[in-house]
Automatic annotation (TrEMBL), chain A:
Pfam family, one: ABC_tran
Name the record gives this protein: Phosphonate C-P lyase system protein PhnK
GO function terms (MF aspect): lyase activity
Keywords: ATP-binding, Lyase, Nucleotide-binding
NCBIfam families: CP_lyasePhnK
Domain ABC transporter: start-end pairs: 20-270
Source organism of the structure: Pseudomonas petrae
SMART domains: AAA
Signal peptide coordinates: none
UniProtKB/TrEMBL annotation, chain B:
Function of the protein: Catalyzes the breakage of the C-P bond in alpha-D-ribose 1-methylphosphonate 5-phosphate (PRPn) forming alpha-D-ribose.
Entry's EC annotation: 4.7.1.1
Name this polypeptide is given: Alpha-D-ribose 1-methylphosphonate 5-phosphate C-P lyase
Catalyzed chemical reaction(s): alpha-D-ribose 1-methylphosphonate 5-phosphate + AH2 + S-adenosyl-L-methionine = alpha-D-ribose 1,2-cyclic phosphate 5-phosphate + methane + 5'-deoxyadenosine + L-methionine + A + H(+)
UniProt enzyme class: lyase
Protein family (similarity comment): Belongs to the PhnJ family.
InterPro entries from the UniProt entry: PhnJ (IPR010306)
Key words of the record: 4Fe-4S, Iron, Iron-sulfur, Lyase, Metal-binding, S-adenosyl-L-methionine
Highest taxon listed in the record's lineage: Bacteria
Automatic annotation (TrEMBL), chain C:
Keyword Lyase assigned: yes
GO MF annotations in UniProt: lyase activity
Pfam families according to UniProt: PhnI (PF05861)
Domain of life of the source: Bacteria
Organism taxonomic ancestry: Bacteria, Pseudomonadati, Pseudomonadota, Gammaproteobacteria, Pseudomonadales
The protein's name in its UniProt record: Carbon-phosphorus lyase complex subunit PhnI
Length: 276, 297, 357
């Protein structure tokens, strides 16, 4: 539809324009299986949490948003970065070509899988994992790739001496941090995360959340994070969407929803967590 | 077409053709289909064109792709040379040369400059090729991305989208692990600054011979039913890093027969003590040098 | 001077002569006739015809004789011969519901219209070596009644379809590609997949089908119907404008009834897998039907997690002529590539040697 409306970038600053505009997004596998009629806007630097029980449609929604699976209906518009050759234009994700979507996914976007094995190349070293996006963008200098690898290991608190080690020799928490580094090396503006702390034990989770919170603020990332863990949502998300049986039942500021839920299902969700 | 520059024995005379089969075995419809594929391949250098590969009377993996290409382009006046590992007298080269001598009745030769078509497995001749020649390569796995991405659907998309970053991941990993790029043969190349191509399992020693060659290069993979081409005078660059450039093999030895110090050498083990000797892999090149040496004396 | 293992024409000729001698065996024993193979090894002939994609029992028997009983080699011989044949016409789809049945069974119903017909089968034999065969004892077999009344035998899955309980297969009317003439591209159509499976190696399909039963891509199969018998082949030449029968072929058909699927818009229905082979070849037809169904995972939005569900994996590796060729090519000389590897590994080992000093 409005795939390429030129916006007046001088008049409106980047921060006040949404990055992502989602309208009427629907994908159903069965009655109330999947997600339907989801609409929202996401602004630069904003963290949106999607919460709800298993089967509520969180993951389906994330697949649709991240360009992995076309919706039955609905539109996702993404505002291209200033560095892009069509800077500031809106890209209709599913009207765009596969080439455009893929380019987006390895440059301006990132995706952190729940299981780091799905998001890492397990058979190549940590350094190669971090360097892959840069190589895809045409970096052909080994020393430069090396330097980026060392820098990012530092940033995600992994000992740089482990740059040549295979991810399988890393702990679960380290693998997850490596996956984050591999995504952030290209300087994305928007990162999708699917239960990033899911498989980790509590102390490791805390450290990862702390790191993620720091990076999100420092790099001014917009994030869509799917989680069933309200503690994760409270720590990271600015805003929440509560999903149940394929519908968004409530949406609002994180504190507002967690402290004063309006929808009966949100109340149930919050109370079930708060009980000792 | 005979470009031999000095008096040497004439090509093997044409044997009578076996009339039980069509000229060069394949029927004319099939040859036309393959030629159409070849035209497309030449028009899009390095792009893998699917073709309706036929069952040949030789096993898959033994050169059926190369044979179909040769059959499709072979004319009665052509002079055919077939090499395997650089040698004309290896069993598979003999078998394929005989096949075409029998079904097409064409003249055959062992001498590179005299051939108009050279079908090869694993080598490019040392003697520089000229514009009247066509090289036909036998290809086992045409997809340079195959061992990184097993799915054909995905690799075709990667080619279409110029999505080749992962190729350099392998090279990066080699340098990180070994200090060098550790690919010795089937070393991937970029053709005409667009498609990444597997040059077939030639040693990387031969890769520079592909670049700006005056000869037409055709590649056929029978089992995988793909063909591709490098037209004459096309840029072919081997993948590398700025600070770790592509290099070819060098030997500390010279050929024990002709003394060559710049050809690809095969290592022979002479006795139980493991005594080594090195000789040219390109038997014709070696023989040429020996006869030139004698003439000079 | 050392001479590398380079064959030369004489060596090849000699190898061929030795092969002929090995095939013939002891000349004091009578030579095996092609007609004997055809008559007395019909199941081997059926397999060679099926995977060789050519219905010609005599040539299949010849191929078995020539290949000294190596069936993959015999299939290869038949395929290489088939390539050179001229195509006169494509037949109309065979109508297996009009089959002259030799055998028919359904595991899904106790009885079905037309009845169950056990026919010739190993199924209930005790696998005990029969030493009377060692003595070459003749066993004439029962008198068969050529005049038995031909009953109408509707296909079992057709009965389910009448109730709407099984997914109807839609004929899109699109022309069917010939995978022996055009390259298979992925994703393949079901027609192309079935062609590839029909040519596919019996052992490979059997193993994959088996893997689905053991949970790698489980699809809850029931043998809806297996039927073996003769069907007429019809062609419709353009110049005639009406179909004519050109003879009958023996085929084995298997239809599996598989787990049901439903969706937001459709009520649950059973699904099916299909297998067809030349001659009497039940194991092949059943393996094929199981794998056909598992390859339809995408169509039914099932999660693709197991080898038998992965189209590229199955279709790219099911052809035994391709597989045997590529494995056997390892016997060809590779010394140039190996030399390159030798040179490389020596180079890579150099620094560590220096460090050790």
């Amino acid at each position: 539809m409005n795939a390429a409306q030129q916006i007046d970038r001088d008049a409106v600053s980047d921060r006040t324009q949404p990055l992502l505009k989602v309208r009427g997004l629907t994908k159903l596998y069965g009655p109330e299986k999947g997600c339907q009629d989801v609409s929202f806007e996401l602004y630069p630097g904003e963290v949106l949490g999607i919460v709800g029980e298993s089967g509520s449609g969180k993951s389906t929604l994330l697949s649709l948003l991240s360009g992995r699976c076309p919706p039955d209906s609905g539109v996702i518009d993404y505002r291209l970065a200033d560095s892009h050759k069509s800077a500031g234009q809106w890209l209709d994700l599913y009207s765009a070509s596969e080439a455009e979507r893929r380019t987006l996914l390895r440059t301006e976007w990132g995706f952190v899988e729940q299981n780091p094995r799905d998001g890492l190349r397990m058979a190549v070293s940590a350094g190669a994992n971090i360097g892959e996006r840069l190589m895809a963008q045409g970096v052909r200098n080994y020393q430069a790739l090396r330097a980026a690898g060392l820098d990012w290991l530092n940033q995600v608190e992994i000992d740089p001496a482990r740059i040549d080690d295979l991810p399988r020799t890393f702990s679960g928490g380290m693998q997850q941090r490596l996956q984050i580094a591999r995504n952030l090396v290209s300087g994305p503006r928007l990162v999708f995360m699917d239960e990033p702390t899911g498989g980790l034990d509590v102390s490791v989770q805390a450290r990862l959340l702390d790191l993620m919170r720091g990076l999100v603020r420092e790099l001014d990332l917009a994030v869509v994070i799917v989680t069933h863990d309200l503690a994760v949502a409270r720590l990271l998300a600015d805003r929440l969407m509560v999903m149940r049986r394929s519908h968004v039942v409530e949406t609002g500021l994180t504190d507002q929803i967690l402290d004063d839920p309006q929808h009966p299902y949100s109340q149930l969700l919050v109370s079930s967590v708060l009980q000792p | 077409m005979n470009a031999a520059t000095q008096p040497r024995p004439q090509p093997q005379p044409q044997a009578p053709r076996d009339e039980a089969y069509n000229f060069a075995y394949l029927d004319e419809q099939t040859k036309r289909m393959i030629r159409r594929g070849l035209l497309k391949a030449v028009a899009i250098p390095g792009y893998q064109v699917p073709f309706g590969g036929r069952e040949m009377p030789l096993p898959y993996g033994w050169g059926t792709g190369g044979m179909q290409l040769t059959a499709a382009i072979l004319g009665a006046e052509d002079v055919l040379k077939v090499i395997d590992q650089g040698a004309d007298d290896t069993t598979n080269a003999v078998s394929i040369r005989r096949f075409f001598a029998r079904t097409a009745g064409v003249a055959t030769t062992e001498r590179t400059p005299e051939a108009t078509i050279i079908q090869t497995r694993h080598r490019i001749p040392e003697t520089p090729l000229h514009a009247d020649q066509i090289m036909v390569y036998q290809v086992p796995i045409p997809e340079p991305l195959r061992f990184i991405e097993p799915s054909e659907t995905e690799t075709r998309t990667m080619h279409a989208l110029n999505d080749y970053g992962v190729m350099h991941v392998k090279l990066y990993e080699d340098i990180a692990t070994f200090g060098h790029i550790a690919t010795a043969y089937a070393y991937p190349v970029t053709v005409d600054e667009r498609y990444v191509m597997d040059p077939s399992p030639i040693p990387k020693f031969d890769n520079p011979k592909l670049d700006m060659s005056p000869a037409l290069m055709l590649f056929g993979a029978g089992r995988e039913k793909r063909l591709y081409a490098v037209p004459p005078f096309t840029r072919v660059t081997s993948l590398d890093f700025e600070d770790h450039p592509f290099e070819v093999q060098k030997w500390e030895h010279n050929c024990a027969i002709c003394g060559s110090h710049d050809s690809f050498l095969d290592e022979l083990i002479l006795d139980d003590q493991g005594t080594q000797s090195f000789v040219c892999s390109d038997t014709d090149y070696c023989a040429q040098r020996v006869s030139q040496g004698r003439a000079a004396q | 001077m050392y001479v590398a293992v380079k064959g030369g024409e004489q060596a090849i000729d000699n190898a061929h002569k030795l092969l002929a001698k090995q095939r013939r065996g002891d000349t004091s024993v009578a030579e095996l006739g092609v007609e004997q193979i055809r008559q007395q090894l019909p199941l081997a002939v059926a397999r060679v015809m099926t995977e060789g994609s050519l219905y010609d029992a005599e040539l299949a028997a010849l191929a078995i004789k020539q290949s000294a009983g190596d069936l993959v080699e015999a299939i290869f011989l038949l395929r290489a011969y088939r390539t050179t044949l001229t195509r006169f016409s494509a037949s109309l789809p065979i109508d297996t519901s009009a089959m002259q049945l030799n055998r028919r069974l359904s595991a899904t119903f106790k009885d079905v219209p037309g009845g169950q017909l056990l026919g010739p089968t190993f199924d209930y034999t005790h696998r005990l070596l029969d030493f009377t065969l060692l003595a070459e004892g003749e066993f004439p077999g029962p008198e068969s009644q050529a005049d038995a009344a031909v009953q109408d035998c509707p296909r079992v899955l057709g009965l389910l379809a009448k109730e709407g309980l099984i997914k109807e297969e839609q004929d899109t009317g699109a022309s069917v590609a010939d995978i022996t003439r055009e390259p298979l591209e992925y994703p393949a159509s079901r027609a192309e997949r079935l062609q590839a499976l029909a040519r596919g190696d019996e052992g490979f399909l059997l193993a994959l089908g088996y893997s689905t039963q053991r949970g790698y891509g489980r699809n809850h199969p029931f043998a809806g119907e297996i039927r073996v018998g003769e069907v007429e082949v019809w062609i419709e030449p353009e110049e005639l404008g009406f179909p004519i029968s050109i003879g009958a072929i023996e085929v084995t058909e298997c239809e599996m009834v598989n787990q049901f699927v439903g969706s937001a818009t459709e009520l649950p229905q059973f699904t099916r897998g299909y297998g067809l082979a030349f001659g009497h070849a039940e194991r092949k037809a059943m393996g094929m039907a199981l794998v056909d169904r598992s390859l339809r995972a995408g169509e039914y939005s099932e999660e693709i997690v197991s080898p038998a569900q992965q189209e590229e994996f199955v279709l790219a590796h099911c052809d035994n002529v391709e597989a045997a060729g590529f494995v056997s090519h390892l016997k060809l000389p590779h010394y140039v590539d190996f030399q390159a590897e030798l040179e490389l590994i020596r180079k890579l080992r150099t620094p560590s040697r220096e460090q050790a000093q």
